[in-house]
Write a structure and sequence with these properties.
The protein has 5 helices and 6 strands. With about 150 residues, it is α/β, with parallel strands linked by helices. It has one domain: Alpha-Beta Barrel (TIM Barrel), CATH 3.20.20. The two termini are about 20 Å apart.
């Protein structure tokens, strides 16, 4: 059985050492993954950037988003490149959990349309797959395995 642990990116008062030292200790303790949560309105660290910091100080542990609220990121090509970059730099350890989210306050803060989040998400999934397949004019890197992250 694999057991993961949360990266405290959304815990109030956590600083740099709370992210990177936690990631190191989680890997040393044998956890299989580090997971982040995604909220715009929380006083928290952004999940992808937090995972990039964790990737820099670990070698084995998987890096996961539990979940990344995809429609809050209105530039899907940039999201695809960011995710592929983390996946590539971490040696293929990124696992993306994607969803629409259910909190209107996050949508309001990001300027995204809460009512259209399902349709937006569907379009983003198609675009992510296209970018990660090498289509759409977005430069490298591609996901490490040469396919979806």
């Amino acid at each position: 059985m694999d057991v993961g642990i949360g990266l405290p990116n959304a815990v109030s008062g956590v600083d740099r050492s709370g992210i990177v030292d936690w990631a190191r200790r989680a890997e040393q303790a044998g956890f299989s993954s580090l997971g982040t949560i995604d909220r715009i309105v929380y006083p928290s660290y952004e999940p992808l950037i937090s995972l990039a910091a964790a990737a820099a100080v670990t070698e084995r542990i998987r890096l996961t988003t539990d979940i990344l609220i995809t429609p809050l990121r209105t530039n899907t090509a940039l999201l695809a490149k960011q995710a592929a970059t983390i996946d590539n730099l971490s040696g293929g350890r990124l696992v993306l959990g994607l969803a629409v989210g259910g909190r209107p306050d996050d949508y309001e803060a990001s300027g995204a349309d809460f009512a259209a989040r399902g349709a937006t998400f569907d379009g983003q999934l198609a675009e992510l797959n296209s970018v990660w397949s090498g289509e759409g004019g977005v430069g490298r890197p591609l996901p490490t395995a040469g396919r979806r992250c």
